[in-house]
Automatic annotation (TrEMBL):
It is an enzyme of class 3 (hydrolase). Coiled coil: none annotated. This is glucan 1,3-beta-glucosidase. Residues 124-160 are annotated as: Disordered. Its EC number is 3.2.1.58. The keyword Phosphoprotein does not apply. It comes from Hermanssonia centrifuga.
Length: 725
């Protein structure tokens, strides 16, 4: 059942809106009064990137161009309202967690599944080693040795034949002057160029001068029903699942584990990892004129806890392949944690559709403890010198739903992550930290943490989840030019990227709005059957895409997503407007993304606020970076924050974990022909904090249950009595 719609006050026209279907049993807790002024107006329900609320409203179809986050009005023609060393910031008090009993013993976390890639647990600051899979790579039969490389690197440009790791071959097509580099003796060779106009990985990226033209690898390591429908179509009549259907990766994993028939089993997910995205995709991305990828990664790439059905550890093997292939083809990576224990937004792409238990409800703090640990493990890995040239942006969490979590709480979390990341990397080093706008829109983030070292704001505007979608094709391009501008935020906040957008001008596409949810668009038949699209339809979509790209081109964007898998029911991609690859092959995505610049001028829709690409030095890691004024953090809540929506529980008595467990260290690749290693998985040897684990003798609520259904957190004699009752 979709939630009733909610009304909210209009905010500046750089905000964003969309909504979600959630489980029928889930009635989300309401935000406190402190957040009421930020709630959006909701006009529809969808499975991708949304608000969830429960206050009724009447859709305003007279203003149909809506994107995600908060309401925006594209029709208003008004302006849109380094150095090195330790972090220079005021000391922040850490709120002491309530500890039960005497000495705390280490708790061994037993993983649900034994898998081929083994995590090495160790206490950092001492010795230790890590293991991984061979990443030696295959040689290109037509490549020539690079005379400038003392290690004899192989390299090639347009027309060369690539031999992949599995022995297959393909031709590298790149008409933009790009070239690949494969260096078996030095696997961290960063001299490849995606295009002649893109700096190689061993050259600096200059924010505001170099422009991000990127694409997401959605549906690969974190599955979504609308992106990979064939995985889910197999499990739509399963008696052991709630509702009989696989609707997210949680229920899909359960169904696969219970499937003992030939071709069943959880290993189907690794088969998907192996085949859905391959090295050839990375070569094609560079050949499409794109220069960045956004790589969504699940927390179960690191580990799972008992009771969680996800396939543990295995996705990490393919994340390593992604970093290897990105380096080979000169692509930079925005590396992003896409899921959180308990779910940060209640959407299927958080791992489990339903309640929000990240920084919300009785288990909110405990789930955030685990999430921070996974952020830390990933940050330690990608901050190693071997990976800094490839991973140049790091997103700690995808789309936290601020309408439920609350602004004060999320601000506190973001500052805690920032402090942790810059302690690992140092100032002016490592990846930029990218934080999602929480669907609040861009304007409210003005002057957030001034002085912070390379903090980037990410927004995800979509058309498809608004109302009034039945508009003529020529309506959408100028609407995109008006609504998707980010110039004002580049001035008010600093670097502001569009981490997701698509070519969709309606909500057609199988399962786009969750398994079993119907589109609101009146006639999706023609739009779902892309082989029958007319040239006018293709041209109209292409014009909309180019207008979107132009509006958000400074400093850049990432299309969602590179590829949509075929449906077993129809034999074709059933959400075609969401596939960059399909659109490129069939003419509704521009062959050269640079051609989009100037589209809005052609449509006579000027930018409300000019922006010349110049940022203050501290925003890009230069002079002043890392010096956050005490006044900027004085009003922020200490971390962990008080959760006003945690059933009025005493915050010091909320369920929590204790830091006694050895850290899971991500394994690095091994190289058959190189003398170098892939690092030990941990950039900061001074980071010796332990990982969270359950407090011995305590009984915890279900980390994934609806907050109002959570049981008490009891320890000691009370826990014994509870367990035996």
């Amino acid at each position: 059942m979709a939630h009733p719609h909610a009304t909210g006050p209009a905010v500046d026209n750089d905000a964003h809106l969309s909504t979600e279907n959630v489980n029928e049993a889930f009635i989300p807790p309401q935000p406190g009064p402190h957040f009421s002024s930020f709630l959006p107006s909701i006009q529809d329900t969808s499975a991708r990137n949304s608000y969830i609320n429960s206050t009724p409203a009447t859709p305003d179809v007279s203003r149909p161009f809506l994107s995600e986050g908060a309401i925006q009005d594209p029709f208003l023609d008004k302006p849109e309202d380094g150095p090195t060393g330790a972090i220079n910031k005021p000391a922040r008090r850490r709120w002491p967690l309530f500890v039960v009993g005497g000495a705390i013993a280490a708790v061994v976390i037993v993983l649900a599944v034994v898998l081929p890639v083994t995590l090495v647990h160790k206490h950092h600051g001492g010795g230790g080693s890590s293991s991984g899979t061979s990443d030696g790579g295959a040689h290109d039969p037509t490549a020539t040795a690079n005379p400038e490389s003392p290690t004899g690197a192989l390299t090639g440009g347009n027309g060369t034949v690539i031999q992949a790791d599995d022995g297959s071959t393909f031709t590298y097509i790149n008409n933009f002057g790009g070239f690949w580099v494969d260096d078996p003796q030095n696997p961290f060779n960063n001299s490849a160029k995606a295009q002649s106009y893109t700096p190689s990985l061993d050259e600096p990226w200059v924010w505001g001068e170099d422009l991000i033209r990127g694409v997401n690898l959605g549906g690969w390591l974190v599955t979504e029903p609308f992106i990979v429908p064939a995985l889910y179509e197999k499990y739509q009549n399963v008696s052991t699942l709630p509702g009989g259907q696989a609707v997210d990766e949680w229920t899909l994993s359960i169904a696969m584990r219970n499937d003992t028939s030939p071709g069943g089993g959880i290993q189907q997910l690794e088969d998907h990892y192996k085949t859905f995205i391959t090295e050839q995709d990375f070569a094609q991305i560079a050949g499409a004129g794109l220069n960045w990828i956004r790589l969504p990664v699940p927390y179960w790439a690191i580990e799972v806890w008992p009771g969680e059905p996800f396939l543990a550890n295995t996705a990490w093997t393919y994340a390593l392949k992604a970093l290897k292939w990105a380096r080979k083809y000169g692509l930079r990576v925005y590396f992003e944690l896409h899921t959180a224990p308990g779910s940060q937004n209640g959407n299927n792409h958080s791992g489990r559709l339903g309640p929000i238990n990240f920084l919300n409800g009785p288990m909110g703090v405990a789930n955030a403890q685990r999430t921070l640990e996974y952020i830390r493990v990933l940050a330690e890995f990608v901050s190693q010198p071997e990976y800094q040239s490839v991973v140049q942006a790091f997103g700690p969490i995808n789309e936290p739903l601020m309408g439920i979590i609350g602004r004060d709480v999320l601000d506190s979390f973001y500052l805690e992550v920032y402090d942790m990341l810059r302690t690992i990397t140092g100032i002016g080093k490592g990846a930029s930290m990218v934080m999602h706008d929480g669907f609040l829109g861009l304007t409210p983030w003005k002057d957030f943490l001034p002085g912070a070292d390379r903090l980037v704001l990410d927004t995800h505007p979509y058309v498809a989840f608004g109302g009034g979608l039945d508009q003529p094709l020529d309506y959408w391009p100028p609407a995109a030019c008006r609504a998707f501008q980010v110039n004002q935020s580049n001035i008010d906040f600093g670097p502001t990227i569009t981490g997701e957008f698509s070519a969709a001008i309606n909500d057609c596409g199988k399962w786009l709005k969750n398994v079993g949810a119907n589109a609101s668009f009146p006639d999706c038949g023609p739009w779902d059957d892309w082989p029958t699209w007319t040239q006018d339809m293709k041209d109209g979509i292409k014009s909309f895409v180019m207008a979107s790209m132009d509006a958000m081109h400074m400093p850049g964007y990432f299309f969602w997503t590179w590829k949509i898998g075929n449906s077993t029911d129809t034999g074709i991609a059933s959400s075609p407007m969401w596939s960059y690859q399909l659109g490129l092959e069939n003419g509704w995505i521009p062959a050269d993304p640079r051609d989009a610049v100037g589209t809005c001028d052609t449509l006579d829709v000027p930018f409300n606020t000019p922006f010349n690409g110049s940022y203050p030095s501290w925003q890009t890691g230069g002079a002043g970076a890392g010096t956050i004024a005490p006044t900027a953090t004085a009003a922020l809540e200490e971390y962990p924050p008080t959760l006003s929506n945690a059933m009025n529980a005493n915050p010091t008595l909320l369920p929590h974990y204790t830091d006694v467990s050895a850290n899971p260290t991500l394994p690095a690749p091994t190289f058959s022909a190189a003398t170098t290693t892939g690092g030990d998985g941990w950039a900061d040897a001074q980071d010796t904090m332990l990982a969270p684990a359950p407090v011995p003798g305590c009984v915890y609520p279900d980390a994934w249950a609806a907050p109002q259904e959570s049981t008490s957190f009891v320890c000691g004699a009370a826990a014994t009595a509870s367990a035996t009752s």
